[in-house]
């Protein structure tokens, strides 16, 4: 049987027209493409960092 | 499709022809987004709004710039009564694509009609107020608010669900079912609505089987529900129409209304049509009568004038004929001529008759008449004067002053050049006692004959 109080908690207040601006600003617009770009960027940085470390290590190895 | 790195158009290869970036994964993401959009579109077409919203949200998770998915999501939200969510999606869509974007039209439609927007806003505020009432445990107030909201915003799914929840908590399962069925007609697969409806059906079944209240059992039994595959088809309980007495009453009421309509609307119009013709006839007859009356009055006036003229003409004719008993000028002239021819001594009689002919008549008389008058007047005049004077003196001696005055007056009228004659007349008046007349005549003597002896004597006779 339905519990009124429990079900009531699931109801959220509806946004009013004055809150449109906030709704737009707070909208999470991150999508898979952004995540992919972030990953690629991180991947590039990781690759660059690895190359830099490698070069440094080679430079500092004793002859 | 454009490259995510450089923005140039991609081809069928797995890398960008311009910047050589790996686009295989990117293409897959876009493809998934489009597939989810298509799924959302199909669901929206069959009114599975909740399912469509879910698919479209997922589509936008893959590609936030999927304008079609975002616009459709806005439409779905709007259909579910969530106008603010719809507006926010359309605004974001317009930001990503400002040219040739249908979201622009949707926004304009909403914002153009400010009253509509205000109404929508009011319903959302009322819904929030109802929710607050539920939290405060004043559910009857919440019920009233929700009914108001649904009367204006018929698509607000959450309002239907909250109202159904209140009904379920109050035990009004029939009302709850009606509300939930309305909600499902908007959003066919809404999970919460279907869950509530399932509970309501179970409750109703329970009542039908076990309740001691006959009415409640009857209500529950009126519900016919059956399984069709995975769906539960529920036929809502329709209120039975009361037949018999109520139909007779309705018929009687209908007859009364019909009679009243005929009496107050139809009959006056017909009466007016009938009487209009009579009014016109009456008017015509009245006008003719008035014209006839006017003509009659005119004729009477003319008749009266003719009668007056006739009388005047008759009098004139009688006068001319001498048949009215009064002697006219012609008679007097004839009589004078007759007297003169009868006796030369009848001078006074001739003059007496001639004096009855007025100067005015003489001026208008014919020449023959005037000539005869003059002849008689001249020939009889001098003899008449002597006779008048003799008669006057005789009368004076006899103290008959009236006769004396009369004869002296006649003599004076015939011969007004004699001052002595005028003096005699004045003496006669004085002797008769009419001093004023006597003084008048003495004065006349003095004025008319100033160099005569009579004038000197007259001055002595004038008394104050």
Can you characterise this structure?
- The complex is a heterodimer of chains A (63) and B (464).
- Helix content of chain A is 65%, strand content 0%.
- Chain A has 63 residues and is an all-alpha fold.
- The radius of gyration of chain A is 26 Å and the shape is elongated.
- The model of chain A has no long low-confidence stretch (mean pLDDT 81).
- With 464 residues, chain B is an all-alpha fold.
- Chain B folds into 4 domains: 24-112, Serine Threonine Protein Phosphatase 5, Tetratricopeptide repeat; 134-235, Alpha Horseshoe (Serine Threonine Protein Phosphatase 5, Tetratricopeptide repeat); 248-326; 354-461, Serine Threonine Protein Phosphatase 5, Tetratricopeptide repeat (Alpha Horseshoe).
- Chain B is built from 20 helices and 2 strands.
- A two-stranded antiparallel sheet of chain B has the order 1-2.
- In chain B, strand 1 and strand 2 (231-235) form a beta hairpin.
- The mean pLDDT of chain B is 86.
- Chains A and B meet through helix 1, helix 2 and helix 3 of A and helix 1, helix 2, helix 4, helix 6 and helix 8 of B.
- Read across the widest sheet of chain B, the strand sequence of neighbours is 1-2
User: Looking at this structure, what is the CATH superfamily of the largest domain in chain B?
Assistant: Tetratricopeptide repeat domain
Number of helices of chain B: 20
β-strand number of chain A: 0
Which regions of chain B contain 5 or more consecutive residues with pLDDT less than 50?
none
Low-confidence stretches of chain A: none
Count of structural domains of chain B = 4
Give the class of chain A from helix and strand content and strand pairing.
mainly alpha
What's the total number of strands of chain B? 2
Q: What fold name goes in the CATH topology slot of the largest domain in chain B?
A: Serine Threonine Protein Phosphatase 5, Tetratricopeptide repeat
Structural class of chain B: mainly alpha
Main β sheet profile of chain A: none
CATH class of the largest domain in chain B: Mainly Alpha
- Strand fraction of chain A: under 5%
């Amino acid at each position: 049987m339905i519990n009124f109080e429990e079900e009531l908690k699931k109801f959220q207040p509806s946004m009013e027209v004055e809150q449109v601006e906030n709704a737009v600003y707070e909208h999470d617009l991150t999508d898979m493409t952004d995540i992919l770009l972030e990953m690629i960027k991180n991947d590039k940085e990781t690759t660059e960092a690895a190359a830099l470390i490698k070069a440094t290590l080679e430079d500092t190895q004793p002859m | 499709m454009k490259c995510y790195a450089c923005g140039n158009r991609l081809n069928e290869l797995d890398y960008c022809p311009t910047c050589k970036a790996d686009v295989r994964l990117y293409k897959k993401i876009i493809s998934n987004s489009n597939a989810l959009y298509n799924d959302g579109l199909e669901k929206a077409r069959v009114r599975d709004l909740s399912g469509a919203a879910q698919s479209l949200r997922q589509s936008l998770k893959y590609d936030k710039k999927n304008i079609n998915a975002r616009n459709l999501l806005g439409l779905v939200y709007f259909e579910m009564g969530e106008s603010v969510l719809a507006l926010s999606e359309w605004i974001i869509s317009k930001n990503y694509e400002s040219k040739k974007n249908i979201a622009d039209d949707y926004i304009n439609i909403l914002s153009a009609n400010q009253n509509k927007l205000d109404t929508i806003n009011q319903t959302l505020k009322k819904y929030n107020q109802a929710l607050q009432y539920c939290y405060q445990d004043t559910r009857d107030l919440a019920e009233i608010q929700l009914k108001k909201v649904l009367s204006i915003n018929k698509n607000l799914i959450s309002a239907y669900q909250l109202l159904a929840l209140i009904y379920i908590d109050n035990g009004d399962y029939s009302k709850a079912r009606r509300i939930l069925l309305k909600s499902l007609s908007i959003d066919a697969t809404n999970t919460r609505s279907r869950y509530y409806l399932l509970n309501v059906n179970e409750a109703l079944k329970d009542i039908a089987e076990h309740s001691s209240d006959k009415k409640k059992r009857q209500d529950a039994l009126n519900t016919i529900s059956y399984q069709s595959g995975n769906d539960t088809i529920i036929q809502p309980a329709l209120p039975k129409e009361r037949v018999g007495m109520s139909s007779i009453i309705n018929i009687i009421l209908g007859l009364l209304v019909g009679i009243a309509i005929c009496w107050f609307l139809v009959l006056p119009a017909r009466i007016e049509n009938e009487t209009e013709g009579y009014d016109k006839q009456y008017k015509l007859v009245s006008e003719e009568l008035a014209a006839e009356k006017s003509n009659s009055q005119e004729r009477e006036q003319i008749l009266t004038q003719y009668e007056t003229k006739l009388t005047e003409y008759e009098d004139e004719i009688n006068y001319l004929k001498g048949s009215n008993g009064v002697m006219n000028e012609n008679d007097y002239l004839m009589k004078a001529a007759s007297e003169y021819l009868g006796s030369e001594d009848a001078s006074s009689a001739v003059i007496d008759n001639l004096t009855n002919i007025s100067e005015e008549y003489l001026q208008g008389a014919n020449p023959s008449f005037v000539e005869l008058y003059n002849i008689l007047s001249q020939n009889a005049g001098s003899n008449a004067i002597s006779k008048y004077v003799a008669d006057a003196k005789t009368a004076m001696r006899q103290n008959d002053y009236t006769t004396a005055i009369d004869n002296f007056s006649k003599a004076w009228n015939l011969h007004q050049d004699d001052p002595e004659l005028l003096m005699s007349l004045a003496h006669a008046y004085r002797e008769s006692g009419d001093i004023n007349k006597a003084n008048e005549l003495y004065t006349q003597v003095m004025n008319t004959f100033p160099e005569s002896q009579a004038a000197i004597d007259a001055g002595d006779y004038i008394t104050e």
